Amino acid sequence: MRSSDPELKKELDATLQTRKELGPEYEDELVESFLEKVDQRLEARLDKQVRRQVAEQQMVVASKGPRRSVSESLDGIGAAFALAAISLVLAIPLSGLAAANAGTTGLVIAWIGIVGVNAVHSAHRFHFARRDQAKGDTDWRE
After folding, report:
1. Which end of the chain is more exposed for a tag (fewer CB within 10 A), N or C?
2. Per-block mean pLDDT, blocks of 10 residues, the chain (142 long)
3. What SS3 state is found at 64?
4. φ/ψ bin of 2: left (φ > 0), alpha (ψ from -120 to 50), beta (otherwise)
5. Backbone angles phi and psi of 2, in degrees to 5
6. Cβ(45)–Cβ(38) under 8 Å?
């Protein structure tokens, strides 16, 4: 038992003194009573620690500032890779349809559209990355 909890030590001393006075026939009740007090102490201490940890976590979250929106958080490398992969997958049927219906001119226009979509997305990501870097926010991909 820790000596930093004098109240619990007093409770134990009182329980032992009561056992001496009442005899061994009340020992079970006395032990249960003491253990309930110990349990209450532990619960109170644990509750206090949990509250402290939750408060610390809330402070950490609050100090990081406002969270980014879903669209901003999706602007990471994963979103760029996904757009590039989808563009390549869709480029095959688009190229076939464009070439079959409009010949070489249609094929060129389809590829200009595919490259344009990817270029606009990259420019958008670059713009927001530079803006966040200028603000000093280095965690723009979180």
Report:
1. N
2. 72 88 86 87 87 85 63 60 84 88 90 88 76 61 45
3. coil
4. beta
5. -80, 140
6. no
**Structure tokens, 32:** 């249960």
- 26: enclosing H helix or E strand: none
Q: Are 76 and 141 in contact (CB under 8 A)?
A: yes
> For residue 105, what are the contacts with CB-CB under 8 A and spacing of at least 6?
none
Distance CA 119, CA 126 (A): 10
List phi, psi (to 5°) of 3: -75, -10
State whether residue 72 is helix, strand or coil: helix
Write down the pTM of the prediction: 0.40
Q: What are the residues whose beta carbons fall under 8 Å from the beta carbon of 113, sequence distance 6 or more?
A: 94
Establish how many alpha carbons lie within 13 A of residue 9's alpha carbon, considering only the half-sphere containing its beta carbon.
6
Q: Give me 84's structure tokens.
A: 């590039």
Contact 142, 68 (CB under 8 A): yes
DSSP code per residue over 75-99: TSHHHHHHHHHHHHHHHHHHHHHHH
Task: For residue 121, give the H/E element and its range.
Answer: helix 77-135
